[in-house]
């Protein structure tokens, strides 16, 4: 099992990729779903951030 710090670092790496694609968003979403409990505050925060980034990318 990964620590929350490791999960957040992996998430940031995916989201900071200059060539970010839909695949990066999907991997980040899978990471959150697979590694964090549904009630985790970190999962909630990163899921909201992921949705905002995905929406912003779609508008670009």
Number of helices: 3
- In the predicted model, the low-confidence regions spanning at least 5 consecutive residues are none
Let me know the average pLDDT.
96
Strand tally is 0
* Through-space gap between termini: 36 Å
Beta-strand proportion:
under 5%
Helical residue percent band: over 70%
SSE string = HHH
Domain module tally:
1
* Radius of gyration using CA atoms only: 11 Å
Shape verdict: globular
- Helix-strand category: mainly alpha
Query: Main sheet?
Result: none
Structural commentary:
It comes from Novipirellula rosea. This is UvrB/uvrC motif protein. The protein has three helices and no strands. The chain is mainly alpha-helical. It has one domain.
Condensed summary:
The protein has three helices and no strands.
Layout: helices, strands, pairs:
Layout: H1 4-15, H2 22-35, H3 41-59
Features of this protein?
60 residues, UvrB/uvrC motif protein, mainly alpha
